[in-house]
Amino acid sequence: MNPKSPEARSRSDDPFEGLNITSLKILDTLEARSPCPHCGKSRMYFCYTCFIPVSQLAGRIPVCTLPIKVDIIKHRREIDGKSTAAHAAILAPGDVRVYTYPEIPEYNINDDRTVLLYPGTDAVSVQQLFSGKKKSEAYTQQILSQLPAGYNVGTLMTKTLSVDCDDLNDIYHVRKWPIERVILIDSTWNQSRGIYADRRLQTLPKIVLQQRASQFWRHQKGSPRWYLSTIEALHQLLLELHICAWGRSETYKAPLTLHYPIHRSNNNHDSCVPYDGQYDNLLYFFKFMYEKLHTLYSHENMLAYKRPMT
To answer: Which reactions fall under this protein's catalytic activity (predicted)?
Structure first.
């Protein structure tokens, strides 16, 4: 792709517009590193090995409460300081746990309420979790039919599952979400294959997300723009689950969600709590670092944002 093309250059001036993210001003007051209260290592905003904020930020950053439990399986070669898995563990400490592969909890293979977020050959969309519908064409066949001659199954990771437009407009008005726990793999896409092949994960139901342009500044050669960072993927998953269950609030107008259905105030569903940014603070550190980097580097010159969406 030509880096000067409209596709490469186009972006929102503020990709976080409309999201309910707490003010970042407290982060700007930190001018120097300080020792982690647990391990004593020098850290700037938080310790990415102990998953706690530095002392100056204790009790002063947002804490998210999630309706599901989240296990993040981190590749041992994934650089702690570059991963966004720590963001999730720090901002949702009661609901997120991080494991370093090969450490993986033993999951009940008969528990269909625990799912793996990964584009496996039998993966389904979030909408299908609620509807129980399966495509008439299997995910594998659908994807393979799009591949040029000579490509192999590994190319599945450069395709996403299409979702019927009608499904996107459905609100299911449920009392309980169809899942209780999700597992995410925190690694580069090439590293993720080895973790995904582990028998402890292979038997789990798998889900895929809708396409969303990543704002992550870390470039992965050969990957499309919709390869999300771990924290972006978690935010997108929770957003899709919540809106499928209860819709979007009439007053919530973040551009990221404008194509999702609105839960109208005259709908008589007592169990519904429409999405109003409940999980947006998961992007608290992510937004801060994005904005900090963009004061130092031009967006148009960063390789991560020149990737195509296909």
So the answer is: a uridine in tRNA + S-adenosyl-L-methionine = a 3-[(3S)-3-amino-3-carboxypropyl]uridine in tRNA + S-methyl-5'-thioadenosine + H(+)
